[in-house]
Amino acid sequence: MAEFTIAQERKVITAIPGPKSQEMQARRLKAVSHGVGAALPVYIEKANGAILVDIDGNHFIDLGCGIGVTTIGHTNPGVIDAVSHQVNQVTHTLFTVTPYEGYVEVAELLNKHTPGNFEKRSALFNSGAEAVENAIKLARKFTGRGEIAVFDHAYHGRTNLTMAMNFKAHPYASGFGPFAPGVNHLPMSYPFRDPAGLTGEQAAQRAILYAEKRVGAENLAAIVIEPVQGEGGFIVPAPGFLTTLTSWARKNGIVVIADEVQSGIARTGQWFASEYEAGFEPDLITIAKGIAGGMPISAVTGRAEIMDSSHPGGIGGTFGGNPVAAAAAVSVLKQIETGQPFEDAKRIENILVSRLNEMKNKYSVIGDIRGRGAMIAVEFVEPGTLNPNSAVVDAAIKFCNQNGVVVLNAGTYNNVIRFLPPLVITDELLNDALNVLDSALASQQ
Ligand SMILES: *Cc1c(COP(=O)(O)O)cnc(C)c1O
């Protein structure tokens, strides 16, 4: 078990947000664009393991990890050492001007641990959206085709191309258009909402029919899919969906891009969520959030012939693969190589799933519990129906926040609570947070 520098305990000593956070919030509103949201405006001073400490001295249990980023825990000692050392060596050269080892090492580690038994290359960037953009650039260059396909309920980022790829116009895209052309939306496999008995293969055929009729397979450069959808509410497609899509894509020369920005890097109990469907080998994988303990770095990893299809100089960016962020990523990837994070993800899954199933028996607003590893979600409905119930989610999250638990919503209908705890969270702390959620749901009966 990791050693912690901050007691792994929940402690609420003021109203939430506390007086200092309220003061800071007022200052923020005068200085920061109001287009930048704030789910819970408590201002964080420090953090360790699974605990966030705000400027009023409240200790929160973090079940969100800044959306699945600090997967190996806040202020992870290995990351602190790697970053501190690197900051004293060199902080920037631009890899495309004068390179350095850290970038190469991250690429080697990702090539080794991504699924697919073929020659691979990687390229590093700053954000998830930038990785997705570059994966698509490479797929278009490689195939000489322009169209791409994405799936309902997907989320891929906030740049112009990725806004066009998201399912939800609001809040991501409303008023920000026009958007990049060449993006086609296909029906997703959503077992909880699909007709009962629809298999993954049938759901894939539904999507394939749409792609062939609406777009034409020969016009498609790539299909982009999250093997477990993140913002969509941890939707796990029915078994067979990903492999059926892939064999169709292979036959038609279409590049398969798995967007594992949220689901990757040990989050689900495997290196990548793609590994859960036997035989599913994406051609390219986009990686970001959990890769570097909070340092900004992202990657595209995949088949050498696709990754090498760009002319030299076609791929890059000023900060991409920054030495400090790369050092953090090497530390995270090496810690995952020990295997402990996979065990932790499964330990967390067992606790979450059994506790949530207990709650499902008590609270008829719980419609579905799903996900993999430490990426588990609950979808809420009006009792006895499939009608989305976002009111119960809003109230439960508010109750959790007031009682020292940070937890996130998700879902096309905002009716999902998702759990993305750090993998170092103790059983005791996780159970304490789940007790708070239980009380939140009880208080709404
Ligand atoms: C968060 C996310 C992105 C965008 O990542 P940014 O770093 O915010 O640009 C892309 N795809 C998925 C699946 C994500 O969860």
In brief:
36% of the residues lie in helices and 16% in strands.
Please render the helix and strand layout as text.
Layout: H1 19-31, E1 44-48, E2 51-54, E3 59-62, H2 65-68, H3 77-89, H4 101-113, E4 120-125, H5 128-143, E5 147-151, H6 160-165, E6 183-186, H7 200-214, E7 220-225, H8 241-251, E8 255-259, E9 284-287, E10 298-303, H9 304-307, H10 323-337, H11 340-362, E11 366-372, E12 375-380, H12 390-402, E13 405-406, E14 408-410, E15 416-419, H13 427-442
The structure holds pyridoxal-5'-phosphate.
The site of pyridoxal-5'-phosphate has 14 residues, from α5.
Quick tags:
alpha/beta, 13 helices, seven-stranded mixed beta sheet, Aspartate Aminotransferase, domain 2, binds pyridoxal-5'-phosphate, 2 domains, globular, four-stranded mixed beta sheet, Aspartate Aminotransferase, domain 1, 445 residues
Structural notes for this entry:
- By secondary structure, this protein is of the alpha/beta class.
- It folds into two domains: 19-62 and 340-442, Aspartate Aminotransferase, domain 1 (Alpha-Beta Complex); 80-337, Aspartate Aminotransferase, domain 2 (3-Layer(aba) Sandwich).
- 36% of the residues lie in helices and 16% in strands.
- The chain is built from 13 helices and 15 strands.
- It has a seven-stranded mixed sheet, with helices on both faces.
- A hairpin with a 5-residue loop joins strand 14 (408-410) and strand 15 (416-419).
- Helix 4 runs parallel beside helix 10.
- The longest helix has 23 residues, at 340-362.
- The protein is globular, with a radius of gyration of 21 Å.
- The two termini are 38 Å apart.
- Pyridoxal-5'-phosphate binds at residues 127-129, 132, 155-157, 226, 230, 259, 261-262, 288-289.
- Pyridoxal-5'-phosphate is lined by residues 127-129, 132, 155-157, 226, 230, 259, 261-262, 288-289.
